[in-house]
Amino acid sequence: MKTIANFLSERLNVIGAWLLALLWVMPLLYAIWAATHPIEYEANFDIFAPLTTYNFTNAWSQAPFARYLLNTVMMTTMIVISQFILCTFVAFAFARFEFPFKNILFAMVLLQLLIMPDILIVENYKTIRFLGLMDTILAIGLPYMASGFGIFLLRQTFKSIPKELDDAARIDGAGVLRIIWNVYVPLSMPTFVAYGLVSISFHWNNFLWPLIITNSVETRPLTVGLSIFSMSEAGVEWATISAGTLMTTAPLFIAFLIFQRQFIASFMTAGIK
Amino acid sequence: MNKKNNLINVFYLLVPGFILLISFTHIPAVKTLMNSFYSTAKGRRASKFVGLENYETLWQDATFWKVFSNNIIYALGVIPTSILLSLAMALWVNSKIIGRPFLRFSYFLPTVLPLIAVGNIWLFFYAPGFGLIDQIVTSLGFPSLNILGSQESSLFGVMAVGIWKEAGFYMIFYLAGLQAIPPDLKEAAMIEGANKWYIFWRITFPLLTPTTLFVSVNAVINSFRQIDHIVVMTQGGPDYASTLLLYYIYESAFVFWDTAYATTLSVVLILLLCLIAIGQFFVLDKKVHYQ
After folding, report:
1. Is B49 helix (H, G, I), strand (E, B) or coil?
2. What DSSP designation does A118 have?
């Protein structure tokens, strides 16, 4: 009796898990279907429907996706590099030094985990306008560069590194920057990779702030470009939108396919700390 | 290395990061509060101190209350559902189930796709007439549905997308939590003859409490922060039926250019987040057992 119940519950588990997974990939499967078939088949699922690349070439010619892609790559690179440098410095100070107001300053860092720049769009917009940085790629990145999340993550990692290692370096006469670069950075590589991947996927996909702050083809990231393309008055076809959507997500998606394990492991490391 | 030297080092390490942190988090947060007591500058009319006038407007603004309750419904619907689903996903992916790599891939997929892009695809699923959902519904003999176009259902339409987007992300944290549980605890319980449900509720779930705390804090913040899908799917409509607080802030500031009202709304959002964070910290802190 017990084995039948076990068998049944196992089967139900498998069915449930697979149904959910299919539901979860449906939007992507649909986008692939619509983008690779002629418009007549966008809601007509015929296995023998002819394949076409027309939707991709059409989308590509209707919006400057290449430029948007370049903007996104520049923006993401700039943000991640600045985050690495700034957060490493601040995290190192919190991990290895004693100084006045340390707890208050650390609480200020943690506050950003709750009140994210996304929520302060109105005042941050005014600041960017005041700085004369409207419609620049730098403006998209500025509010995110000193990331509370990054500081916290790196501080946890640095604290777990044995102090004897940097004492040894210090006796050899190495300064703070040299100790960080020669001892702490190499030993924290997994955290840097994890944080980098999490940050890249966040900023590659970020939308609201770039939407507000950018105004031209030269600065718009892919997400904003795609939204303008798909919400245009002219009424773009679903198949073309699907093709555009696939093109904008492709670089990150392909990276995810190849480095799936690293991606998931990275999000895990970033979450546990 | 003396103390003075150390302080100089600390100063140089902290300054670049803190300048940015303060200019884009702390100063704007304080300025948001201050500007909520001033009127919006219009043309040649400069903004002036108006006391609590913006808050009175807010209190009497029926749209604000509509948006506020929308956001509460959104949070109450999305948070528990996505957490439960994420836990189920993690348990499945962590077990020896058929097709584990495919399951893990599918669940995690929405996390790497931009919400704005998938919003476009979901828009098609919901489209009345030829959309996938409507095709299924009408083929079963039910009348055609306009999910995003009707007042009653558009909020639920965007909630579904929110759940779809979030669950796989939280799964990762549960997966990490599950893998940190020592297997001998489970083995000991099995030897004692405990069944699967008993093991789950008495061992696994209590040991996952820190993860649940972490995930629920994240889920609350996200339910007030994520509005990309609303921008592309409904623009908050019809008639504010699917507008969330941050979308209303965005609309007030950058569509109607009433920045004073937008800062007042931002104060409400910040206060709400702080209250929830404090509440969660105290309530859940008492229930965390590490026995």
Report:
1. strand
2. G
Amino acid at B284: L
- Cross-chain residue pair A248–B114, CB shorter than 8 Å: yes
Domain parsing of chain A, residue ranges = 2-52, 63-272
Q: What is the pTM of this model?
A: 0.87
Considering Cα of A196, then A202, then A205, then A210, what sign does the dihedral take?
Answer: negative
Q: How far apart are CA A29 and CA A43, in angstroms?
A: 13
Whole-number CA gyration radius for chain A: 24
**Distance from B255 to chain A by nearest Cα, in Å?**
10
End-to-end CA distance of chain B, in Å? 44
Phi, psi of B42 (to 5 degrees): -130, 120
What is the model's pLDDT at position B23? 93
Set of chain A residues whose Cβ sits within 8 Å of the Cβ of B263: 122-123
- Residues A53, A164: Cα–Cα separation, whole Å: 60
Task: Examine residue B238 and say whether the peptide bond preceding it is cis (omega within 30 degrees of 0).
Answer: yes
Question: What are residue B42's DSSP bridge partners?
Answer: B45
Q: Are A55 and A230 in contact (CB under 8 A)?
A: no
CB-based contact B252:B57 (threshold 8 Å): no
Alpha carbon A30 to its chain's center: 23
B234, B158 in Cβ contact below 8 A? yes
pLDDT one-digit tens code per residue, A75-121: 999 999 999 999 999 999 999 888 889 999 999 998 888 888 888 99
| Nearest neighbour of B115 by CB, restricted to A86, A207, A271 | A207
At the fourth CATH level, the homologous superfamily of domain A63-272 is: MetI-like (1.10.3720.10)
A89, B16 Cβ separation under 8 angstroms: yes
Interatomic CA distance for residues B35 and A123, integer angstroms: 9
If you search the block for the tokens 């921008």, which residue do you land on? Answer: B231
Tell me the nearest-neighbour CA distance from A246 into chain B, angstroms: 8
Query: How much is the ipTM here?
Result: 0.85
Question: Burial, B43: exposed, middle or buried (Cβ in 10 Å; 0-12, 13-18, 19+)?
Answer: exposed
* Binary contact (A205, B116; C-beta < 8 A): yes
Residues B263-280 have a mean pLDDT of: 87
Taken in order of first residue, the domains within chain B and their CATH numbers are 53-114+154-287 (1.10.3720.10)
